[in-house]
Amino acid sequence: MPAIEIQSVQSLFIELFFNDTRLSSGTGFIATAPCGAVLITNRHNVTGRRQDNNQPMSSTGGVPNKMRVWRNVKGNLAGWNAFDYQLYDQNDDPKWIEHPTLGSAADFVAVKMDMPFNIETYPYDTAEPKEPLRIRPAEIVSVIGFPFGQSAGGYFPIWVSGFIASEIEIDYDSKPQFLIDCRTRPGQSGSPVVAVRHGMSQAKNGDINVGGDHAELLGIYSGRINEKSDIGIVWKRQAINQLVRSIT
């Protein structure tokens, strides 16, 4: 198989069901918590409800109780197996884990993953990189996921690229978020947002890194500020890391 970018196996296709009725699809990715592997995706994916008014998003009016995750087969980059995870326990309490301080206000959650013997994980590191890139407005970033539930072949994600649309160090809407200008669509909710640089790139401390490839997880895509706009919201990696580190 030809060489591929590691990020092309890190985005996972997810489907949301009420029992056997498929309601929607989205994107997730694996991170490593103290407890082991967890899937990171948007809260509105698992609740099936809008974050702003809590109304069901499906035209059926249903909300999911099961999530199907297409996971990477060990030893085969072009292989995936589907695994179903119940979203509620026997007491109807949610099994997903929310941010330790932001709670339901944060549109991202973690779901603990098991480790079947034939499954490989390709986790993102949510910690601060040793040499973080300098990320400025108008620079290119990629949202790597499954718009309209479509893939680039098999369950390889589609790379959709856009531009940083706000100062990344400033919190949009007084939350750990920043903005991107990118033509994103339904199904990309939960996608990792990544800055990929080839060759010369500039580090956050101002040093110039010459040569080599650099890829940095910046956050998780959450949706657009308005249905008529291509301005999208990204929850910052630092907030995701706070959630990941809290799961023991």
Radius of gyration: 17 Å
Low-confidence spans = none
Which structural class matches the secondary elements? mainly beta
**Quaternary status of these chains?**
single chain
- CATH topology of the largest domain: the name is Thrombin, subunit H
Element-by-element helix/strand order: HEEEHEEEEEEEEEEEH
Shape estimate: globular
Q: Return the domain count.
A: 2
**Helix tally?**
3
| Proportion of residues in β-strands | 35-45%
What is the averaged pLDDT score?
94
Report the CATH C-level class of the largest domain: Mainly Beta
* CATH architecture assignment name of the largest domain: Beta Barrel
Explain what this protein looks like in three dimensions.
The structure is a single chain. The protein has 248 residues and is mainly beta. The protein has 2 domains: 7-112, Thrombin, subunit H, CATH 2.40.10; 140-237, Thrombin, subunit H. It contains 3 helices and 14 strands. The model has no long low-confidence stretch (mean pLDDT 94).
Secondary structure layout plus pairing:
Elements: H1 7-10, E1 11-18, E2 21-33, E3 36-41, H2 43-47, E4 66-73, E5 76-86, E6 109-112, E7 140-145, E8 158-164, E9 177-181, E10 192-198, E11 201-202, E12 208-209, E13 213-224, E14 231-236, H3 237-245
Antiparallel strand pairs: 1-2, 1-4, 2-3, 3-6, 4-5, 7-8, 7-10, 8-9, 9-14, 10-13, 11-12, 13-14
